[in-house]
Amino acid sequence: MKQSERFTDRFDWGLLFILMGFCLISLIGIWSAQSMEQYGNTNFVLRQAIWYGVGFVVILGASQIEPDVYKKTAPYFYAVGILLLIGIALAPESIAPYRNGAKRWFDLPLIGTVQPSELMKTFYILMLAYIVSRHQEKFIIKNLKHDTWLLGKILLAAFVPVSLIMNQPDLGTSLVFIAISAGVIIVSGISWKLLAPVFGLAAGGGITILGLVVYKPEWLEQTLGLQQYQFGRVYSWLDPHSYQTSEGYNLLQAMSAIGSGEMFGRGYQSGQVYIPEQHTDFIFSIFGEEFGFIGSSILVAWFMFLIYHIINVATMTKSPFSTYLCVGIVGMLTFQVFQNIGMTIQLLPITGLTLPFVSYGGSSLLITMFSIGLIFSVRYHHRDYMFEGDSTL
To answer: What parts of the sequence cross the membrane (predicted)?
Structure first.
Protein backbone atom coordinates (compact mmCIF):
# COMPACT_ATOMS: atom_id res chain seq x y z
CA MET A 1 0.00 0.00 0.00
CA LYS A 2 1.34 3.44 -0.88
CA GLN A 3 2.25 5.85 1.90
CA SER A 4 -0.30 8.42 0.67
CA GLU A 5 -3.04 5.80 0.70
CA ARG A 6 -2.08 4.71 4.20
CA PHE A 7 -2.29 8.32 5.37
CA THR A 8 -5.71 8.70 3.75
CA ASP A 9 -7.02 5.60 5.48
CA ARG A 10 -5.61 6.40 8.92
CA PHE A 11 -6.24 10.13 9.16
CA ASP A 12 -9.31 11.17 11.16
CA TRP A 13 -11.28 12.99 8.48
CA GLY A 14 -14.41 13.16 10.62
CA LEU A 15 -12.59 15.14 13.31
CA LEU A 16 -11.08 17.39 10.67
CA PHE A 17 -14.59 18.10 9.34
CA ILE A 18 -15.73 19.09 12.83
CA LEU A 19 -12.77 21.46 13.20
CA MET A 20 -13.44 23.02 9.80
CA GLY A 21 -16.98 23.66 11.01
CA PHE A 22 -15.64 25.40 14.11
CA CYS A 23 -13.34 27.50 11.93
CA LEU A 24 -16.29 28.67 9.85
CA ILE A 25 -18.42 29.31 12.95
CA SER A 26 -15.62 31.30 14.57
CA LEU A 27 -15.01 33.48 11.52
CA ILE A 28 -18.75 34.15 11.15
CA GLY A 29 -19.03 35.21 14.80
CA ILE A 30 -15.90 37.37 14.82
CA TRP A 31 -16.87 39.03 11.53
CA SER A 32 -20.16 40.07 13.07
CA ALA A 33 -18.48 41.20 16.32
CA GLN A 34 -15.91 43.40 14.60
CA SER A 35 -18.60 45.21 12.67
CA MET A 36 -19.23 47.07 15.94
CA GLU A 37 -17.55 50.47 16.23
CA GLN A 38 -15.47 49.38 19.26
CA TYR A 39 -12.95 47.54 17.07
CA GLY A 40 -11.97 50.30 14.67
CA ASN A 41 -10.02 49.00 11.66
CA THR A 42 -8.58 45.90 13.33
CA ASN A 43 -9.24 42.81 11.21
CA PHE A 44 -9.69 40.05 13.77
CA VAL A 45 -11.21 37.74 11.15
CA LEU A 46 -7.99 37.69 9.13
CA ARG A 47 -5.93 37.14 12.27
CA GLN A 48 -8.16 34.27 13.40
CA ALA A 49 -7.99 32.69 9.95
CA ILE A 50 -4.19 32.83 10.10
CA TRP A 51 -4.16 31.30 13.59
CA TYR A 52 -6.43 28.52 12.36
CA GLY A 53 -4.13 27.91 9.42
CA VAL A 54 -1.15 27.60 11.75
CA GLY A 55 -3.26 25.42 14.05
CA PHE A 56 -4.00 22.93 11.27
CA VAL A 57 -0.27 22.68 10.57
CA VAL A 58 0.28 22.01 14.29
CA ILE A 59 -2.35 19.26 14.15
CA LEU A 60 -0.69 17.66 11.13
CA GLY A 61 2.66 17.64 12.89
CA ALA A 62 1.26 16.39 16.20
CA SER A 63 -0.64 13.57 14.51
CA GLN A 64 2.58 12.10 13.09
CA ILE A 65 4.14 11.58 16.53
CA GLU A 66 3.19 8.31 18.18
CA PRO A 67 1.38 8.41 21.54
CA ASP A 68 4.24 6.41 23.08
CA VAL A 69 6.56 9.34 22.36
CA TYR A 70 4.17 11.72 24.13
CA LYS A 71 4.06 9.29 27.04
CA LYS A 72 7.84 9.22 27.38
CA THR A 73 8.16 12.99 27.13
CA ALA A 74 5.12 13.92 29.28
CA PRO A 75 7.22 14.73 32.41
CA TYR A 76 9.37 17.08 30.32
CA PHE A 77 6.29 18.88 28.96
CA TYR A 78 5.04 19.22 32.52
CA ALA A 79 8.38 20.56 33.75
CA VAL A 80 8.52 23.14 30.96
CA GLY A 81 5.00 24.29 31.84
CA ILE A 82 5.91 24.70 35.51
CA LEU A 83 9.03 26.66 34.61
CA LEU A 84 6.97 28.99 32.41
CA LEU A 85 4.50 29.59 35.24
CA ILE A 86 7.36 30.35 37.62
CA GLY A 87 8.93 32.54 34.96
CA ILE A 88 5.83 34.69 34.56
CA ALA A 89 5.69 35.21 38.32
CA LEU A 90 9.34 36.36 38.40
CA ALA A 91 9.50 38.18 35.06
CA PRO A 92 9.74 42.00 35.02
CA GLU A 93 6.66 43.96 34.03
CA SER A 94 8.36 44.96 30.78
CA ILE A 95 7.70 41.48 29.38
CA ALA A 96 4.96 40.30 31.78
CA PRO A 97 2.79 43.34 32.52
CA TYR A 98 -0.14 43.45 34.91
CA ARG A 99 -3.55 43.69 33.27
CA ASN A 100 -6.63 44.26 35.37
CA GLY A 101 -4.64 43.34 38.45
CA ALA A 102 -3.41 40.01 37.02
CA LYS A 103 -0.02 38.90 35.71
CA ARG A 104 -0.77 36.09 33.26
CA TRP A 105 0.81 36.93 29.91
CA PHE A 106 4.22 37.29 28.34
CA ASP A 107 4.38 40.14 25.83
CA LEU A 108 6.98 38.94 23.33
CA PRO A 109 8.26 40.84 20.27
CA LEU A 110 6.89 39.58 16.95
CA ILE A 111 5.01 36.72 18.69
CA GLY A 112 2.61 38.81 20.75
CA THR A 113 1.00 37.66 23.99
CA VAL A 114 1.55 34.14 25.32
CA GLN A 115 -0.34 32.78 28.33
CA PRO A 116 1.65 29.97 30.00
CA SER A 117 -1.41 28.65 31.83
CA GLU A 118 -2.96 27.80 28.45
CA LEU A 119 0.10 25.72 27.58
CA MET A 120 0.05 24.13 31.01
CA LYS A 121 -3.47 22.76 30.57
CA THR A 122 -2.42 20.42 27.77
CA PHE A 123 0.94 19.64 29.41
CA TYR A 124 -0.93 18.74 32.60
CA ILE A 125 -3.25 16.38 30.70
CA LEU A 126 -0.19 14.60 29.27
CA MET A 127 1.27 14.31 32.76
CA LEU A 128 -1.94 12.93 34.25
CA ALA A 129 -2.21 10.31 31.51
CA TYR A 130 1.41 9.40 32.18
CA ILE A 131 0.93 9.14 35.96
CA VAL A 132 -2.20 6.98 35.83
CA SER A 133 -1.02 4.65 33.05
CA ARG A 134 2.39 4.10 34.68
CA HIS A 135 0.77 3.49 38.06
CA GLN A 136 -1.52 0.83 36.60
CA GLU A 137 1.39 -0.84 34.83
CA LYS A 138 3.25 -1.04 38.14
CA PHE A 139 0.35 -2.02 40.40
CA ILE A 140 -1.68 -4.59 38.50
CA ILE A 141 -3.53 -5.76 41.60
CA LYS A 142 -5.59 -2.87 42.96
CA ASN A 143 -6.25 -2.19 46.62
CA LEU A 144 -7.12 0.82 48.75
CA LYS A 145 -3.48 1.54 49.53
CA HIS A 146 -2.51 1.67 45.86
CA ASP A 147 -5.57 3.78 45.03
CA THR A 148 -4.68 6.25 47.78
CA TRP A 149 -1.14 6.48 46.44
CA LEU A 150 -2.43 7.15 42.90
CA LEU A 151 -4.87 9.79 44.12
CA GLY A 152 -2.07 11.46 46.07
CA LYS A 153 0.14 11.62 42.98
CA ILE A 154 -2.67 13.16 40.92
CA LEU A 155 -3.45 15.76 43.57
CA LEU A 156 0.23 16.65 43.93
CA ALA A 157 0.60 17.03 40.17
CA ALA A 158 -2.42 19.37 40.20
CA PHE A 159 -1.39 21.33 43.30
CA VAL A 160 1.79 22.79 41.83
CA PRO A 161 0.34 24.43 38.67
CA VAL A 162 -2.93 25.42 40.37
CA SER A 163 -1.02 27.18 43.15
CA LEU A 164 1.07 29.11 40.63
CA ILE A 165 -1.97 30.02 38.53
CA MET A 166 -3.98 31.14 41.56
CA ASN A 167 -1.07 33.41 42.43
CA GLN A 168 -1.49 35.29 39.13
CA PRO A 169 -4.47 35.30 40.04
CA ASP A 170 -6.61 33.27 37.60
CA LEU A 171 -9.47 31.40 39.24
CA GLY A 172 -11.13 30.40 35.97
CA THR A 173 -8.13 28.53 34.60
CA SER A 174 -7.55 26.91 38.00
CA LEU A 175 -11.06 25.48 37.81
CA VAL A 176 -10.20 23.95 34.43
CA PHE A 177 -7.39 22.00 36.08
CA ILE A 178 -9.81 20.75 38.71
CA ALA A 179 -12.26 19.64 36.00
CA ILE A 180 -9.49 17.81 34.11
CA SER A 181 -8.37 16.09 37.31
CA ALA A 182 -11.91 15.05 38.21
CA GLY A 183 -12.51 13.50 34.79
CA VAL A 184 -9.31 11.46 34.83
CA ILE A 185 -9.79 10.40 38.46
CA ILE A 186 -13.29 9.09 37.75
CA VAL A 187 -12.12 6.78 34.95
CA SER A 188 -8.79 5.84 36.60
CA GLY A 189 -10.30 2.90 38.45
CA ILE A 190 -9.80 4.36 41.91
CA SER A 191 -12.31 2.85 44.33
CA TRP A 192 -15.43 4.89 45.01
CA LYS A 193 -14.94 4.07 48.68
CA LEU A 194 -12.09 6.55 48.46
CA LEU A 195 -13.54 8.92 45.86
CA ALA A 196 -16.96 9.45 47.47
CA PRO A 197 -15.62 11.20 50.60
CA VAL A 198 -13.02 13.10 48.55
CA PHE A 199 -15.61 14.49 46.13
CA GLY A 200 -17.93 15.16 49.06
CA LEU A 201 -15.27 17.20 50.80
CA ALA A 202 -14.50 19.04 47.56
CA ALA A 203 -18.17 19.93 47.05
CA GLY A 204 -18.48 21.02 50.65
CA GLY A 205 -15.33 23.11 50.32
CA GLY A 206 -16.70 24.83 47.22
CA ILE A 207 -19.96 25.69 48.94
CA THR A 208 -18.04 26.95 51.98
CA ILE A 209 -15.84 29.20 49.84
CA LEU A 210 -18.92 30.61 48.10
CA GLY A 211 -20.42 31.37 51.49
CA LEU A 212 -17.21 33.04 52.62
CA VAL A 213 -17.15 35.17 49.46
CA VAL A 214 -20.61 36.47 50.34
CA TYR A 215 -20.19 36.86 54.10
CA LYS A 216 -16.44 36.89 54.90
CA PRO A 217 -14.53 38.12 51.82
CA GLU A 218 -11.80 39.77 53.89
CA TRP A 219 -10.81 36.37 55.29
CA LEU A 220 -10.36 34.94 51.80
CA GLU A 221 -8.24 37.93 50.79
CA GLN A 222 -5.89 37.33 53.70
CA THR A 223 -5.66 33.52 53.51
CA LEU A 224 -6.05 32.60 49.81
CA GLY A 225 -4.92 35.86 48.23
CA LEU A 226 -8.13 36.33 46.25
CA GLN A 227 -8.74 39.79 44.82
CA GLN A 228 -11.70 42.08 45.30
CA TYR A 229 -12.58 42.01 41.58
CA GLN A 230 -13.04 38.23 41.82
CA PHE A 231 -15.57 38.70 44.61
CA GLY A 232 -17.33 41.27 42.46
CA ARG A 233 -17.89 38.64 39.80
CA VAL A 234 -19.70 36.45 42.32
CA TYR A 235 -21.77 39.36 43.63
CA SER A 236 -22.71 40.45 40.11
CA TRP A 237 -23.63 36.85 39.25
CA LEU A 238 -26.01 36.59 42.21
CA ASP A 239 -27.49 40.08 41.75
CA PRO A 240 -26.37 41.64 38.44
CA HIS A 241 -28.86 44.50 38.58
CA SER A 242 -27.18 45.90 41.69
CA TYR A 243 -23.90 46.03 39.73
CA GLN A 244 -25.24 47.06 36.34
CA THR A 245 -22.74 49.90 35.99
CA SER A 246 -19.72 47.80 36.97
CA GLU A 247 -19.16 44.01 37.22
CA GLY A 248 -22.72 43.14 36.21
CA TYR A 249 -22.73 45.23 33.03
CA ASN A 250 -21.40 42.58 30.63
CA LEU A 251 -23.66 39.89 32.08
CA LEU A 252 -26.80 42.01 31.75
CA GLN A 253 -25.86 42.99 28.20
CA ALA A 254 -25.17 39.37 27.26
CA MET A 255 -28.48 38.17 28.67
CA SER A 256 -30.27 41.01 26.90
CA ALA A 257 -28.63 40.08 23.60
CA ILE A 258 -29.38 36.37 23.91
CA GLY A 259 -32.94 37.00 25.06
CA SER A 260 -33.65 39.43 22.23
CA GLY A 261 -32.74 36.75 19.70
CA GLU A 262 -35.75 34.69 20.76
CA MET A 263 -36.29 31.58 18.61
CA PHE A 264 -34.81 32.51 15.22
CA GLY A 265 -32.66 35.57 15.96
CA ARG A 266 -32.51 39.08 14.57
CA GLY A 267 -30.50 38.03 11.53
CA TYR A 268 -26.80 38.02 10.74
CA GLN A 269 -25.02 41.28 11.60
CA SER A 270 -28.31 42.69 12.87
CA GLY A 271 -27.23 42.68 16.52
CA GLN A 272 -28.10 45.81 18.47
CA VAL A 273 -26.80 45.09 21.98
CA TYR A 274 -23.33 46.44 22.75
CA ILE A 275 -20.97 44.16 24.69
CA PRO A 276 -17.30 45.10 25.20
CA GLU A 277 -14.78 42.67 23.67
CA GLN A 278 -17.62 40.57 22.29
CA HIS A 279 -15.27 38.64 20.00
CA THR A 280 -13.61 36.88 22.95
CA ASP A 281 -15.37 35.95 26.20
CA PHE A 282 -18.93 36.78 25.12
CA ILE A 283 -18.95 35.57 21.54
CA PHE A 284 -21.81 33.17 22.35
CA SER A 285 -24.09 36.18 22.79
CA ILE A 286 -23.62 36.95 19.08
CA PHE A 287 -25.11 33.61 18.10
CA GLY A 288 -27.91 33.99 20.64
CA GLU A 289 -28.89 37.44 19.38
CA GLU A 290 -28.40 36.99 15.64
CA PHE A 291 -29.34 33.31 15.21
CA GLY A 292 -31.65 32.82 18.18
CA PHE A 293 -32.31 29.66 20.13
CA ILE A 294 -32.05 27.54 16.97
CA GLY A 295 -28.61 28.85 16.02
CA SER A 296 -27.32 28.63 19.58
CA SER A 297 -28.54 25.04 19.83
CA ILE A 298 -26.72 24.13 16.62
CA LEU A 299 -23.51 25.56 18.08
CA VAL A 300 -23.93 23.58 21.30
CA ALA A 301 -24.72 20.45 19.26
CA TRP A 302 -21.51 20.95 17.28
CA PHE A 303 -19.57 20.85 20.54
CA MET A 304 -21.45 17.68 21.47
CA PHE A 305 -20.36 16.10 18.17
CA LEU A 306 -16.77 16.93 19.03
CA ILE A 307 -16.98 15.50 22.55
CA TYR A 308 -18.76 12.38 21.29
CA HIS A 309 -16.11 11.87 18.64
CA ILE A 310 -13.24 12.14 21.14
CA ILE A 311 -15.01 9.68 23.48
CA ASN A 312 -15.26 7.22 20.58
CA VAL A 313 -11.52 7.56 19.99
CA ALA A 314 -10.91 6.94 23.71
CA THR A 315 -12.97 3.74 23.65
CA MET A 316 -11.34 2.29 20.53
CA THR A 317 -7.71 2.69 21.60
CA LYS A 318 -5.93 -0.19 23.33
CA SER A 319 -3.48 2.10 25.10
CA PRO A 320 -4.40 3.22 28.65
CA PHE A 321 -2.24 6.33 28.21
CA SER A 322 -4.17 7.32 25.10
CA THR A 323 -7.48 6.69 26.85
CA TYR A 324 -6.61 8.97 29.76
CA LEU A 325 -5.25 11.53 27.33
CA CYS A 326 -8.61 11.65 25.55
CA VAL A 327 -10.51 11.81 28.84
CA GLY A 328 -8.42 14.74 30.04
CA ILE A 329 -9.06 16.66 26.83
CA VAL A 330 -12.79 15.90 27.06
CA GLY A 331 -12.79 17.23 30.64
CA MET A 332 -10.99 20.40 29.61
CA LEU A 333 -13.22 21.18 26.63
CA THR A 334 -16.48 20.22 28.34
CA PHE A 335 -15.82 22.43 31.34
CA GLN A 336 -14.74 25.42 29.27
CA VAL A 337 -17.79 25.19 27.01
CA PHE A 338 -20.14 24.76 29.96
CA GLN A 339 -18.48 27.61 31.87
CA ASN A 340 -18.35 30.06 28.98
CA ILE A 341 -21.94 29.53 27.87
CA GLY A 342 -23.15 29.31 31.47
CA MET A 343 -21.64 32.66 32.39
CA THR A 344 -23.47 34.43 29.54
CA ILE A 345 -26.88 33.28 30.82
CA GLN A 346 -26.22 33.75 34.56
CA LEU A 347 -25.98 30.04 35.19
CA LEU A 348 -22.37 30.44 36.41
CA PRO A 349 -20.16 33.36 37.53
CA ILE A 350 -18.06 35.18 34.95
CA THR A 351 -14.52 33.77 34.95
CA GLY A 352 -13.00 35.04 31.72
CA LEU A 353 -12.75 31.63 30.05
CA THR A 354 -13.14 31.78 26.29
CA LEU A 355 -15.30 29.52 24.14
CA PRO A 356 -12.93 26.91 22.63
CA PHE A 357 -12.40 27.12 18.86
CA VAL A 358 -14.91 29.99 18.56
CA SER A 359 -13.58 32.93 20.58
CA TYR A 360 -10.79 35.00 19.06
CA GLY A 361 -7.37 34.03 20.37
CA GLY A 362 -3.86 33.30 19.23
CA SER A 363 -1.90 31.20 21.69
CA SER A 364 -5.07 29.80 23.29
CA LEU A 365 -6.37 28.57 19.91
CA LEU A 366 -3.02 27.05 18.98
CA ILE A 367 -2.74 25.16 22.25
CA THR A 368 -6.32 23.89 21.92
CA MET A 369 -5.52 22.76 18.38
CA PHE A 370 -2.41 21.02 19.71
CA SER A 371 -4.56 19.13 22.21
CA ILE A 372 -6.78 18.02 19.33
CA GLY A 373 -3.62 17.06 17.47
CA LEU A 374 -3.03 14.56 20.27
CA ILE A 375 -6.41 13.03 19.47
CA PHE A 376 -5.42 12.80 15.81
CA SER A 377 -2.23 11.04 16.93
CA VAL A 378 -4.17 8.47 18.96
CA ARG A 379 -6.51 7.74 16.07
CA TYR A 380 -3.80 7.76 13.39
CA HIS A 381 -1.48 5.33 15.14
CA HIS A 382 -4.26 3.16 16.54
CA ARG A 383 -4.73 1.59 13.10
CA ASP A 384 -1.14 0.37 13.16
CA TYR A 385 -1.85 -1.50 16.38
CA MET A 386 -5.08 -2.97 15.01
CA PHE A 387 -3.40 -4.62 12.01
CA GLU A 388 -0.03 -5.28 13.55
CA GLY A 389 1.28 -8.64 12.42
CA ASP A 390 -1.24 -9.01 9.58
CA SER A 391 0.75 -10.61 6.78
CA THR A 392 -1.72 -9.53 4.11
CA LEU A 393 -0.71 -5.90 4.42
So the answer is: 12-33, 45-63, 75-99, 119-136, 148-165, 171-187, 194-215, 291-311, 323-345, 357-378
